[in-house]
Amino acid sequence: MAKSTRGRRAVAQQLGLIDQPTPTTAKSGKRDARPPRQQLPTDRAIFWTMIKRIFKWVFRLVAAFFIVSILLVVIYRFIDPPITPLMLIRPLEGATSGSAVGVTKEWIDIDDVSPALLRSLIAAEDGKFFAHGGVDMKALERAKAYNERMKGKKLRGASTITMQCARNVFLWQGRNYIRKGLEIYFTYLMEFVWGKKRILEVYINVIEWGDGVYGVEAASQKYFGISARDLNARQAALLASVLPNPRRWSPAAPTGYINKRASGIQARARGVSLAPITTTSKSPTTEPKRKKSK
Hints:
The protein has 294 residues and is mainly alpha-helical. The chain has helices at 2-14, 43-78, 85-97, 115-125, 137-150, 161-170, 177-193, 196-206, 216-224, 233-241, 256-269, and strands at 104-105, 213-214. Helix 2 crosses helix 7 (177-193), helix 4 (115-125) crosses helix 11 (256-269) and helix 6 crosses helix 8 (196-206).
């Protein structure tokens, strides 16, 4: 009983429900003053004080998350993300598996990218990119119905370009409700702060296009030996066709399946309009001029 009382008193002191004992003096070892013995709080009072303290810290953490996340989104509206979580995760995965994985990336402005690439990506990944507010609810419903029919054998996603961009810039890969919830939160925040053009620009510069290859400029140089501004319609379609699994497929050595997929993307890309992100100074809606062969 004495131990229990001492334990309760110690907890109550830590919670600030009763005063701490007065410290002893260095010379005499006696207390400077002995305060009157305070009544020990009940277990119920101690319990609810602890709950309030926990909720206070949880509130502070949540508030800090919202403040930091909003600041990051605002900053990345004007400053290009220097690195992403996936760029840090892949080298660690490579180290554990015994293979070296670096980071190859080179930023390119969206106005300098071949329009064929932009059209191909929209055709392949998110045909309603300019129509939805970040999340394509109809696509989510179709994917949910499909996955229920397949009973987990072959899952189908419904991630928009904005959702993929949010996942790549701010989060980690994987399938769980926490990450999905955060992904949707960042998706709507990016749509509100960035707008479609900035979302597409960041997306094409951060997505993974092979082991250690990030962004369309690095991918164009690696697979075709040219800049992303010089991609033709077929090369753009091949780059877009491997995005479901860029570490498995290569645009430079397409399989029969990838060639077929690229042909479908190339056909759909002709109907994609880039008018919503057209600028007055540089229009990405026209193909880059090419030299005529003699």
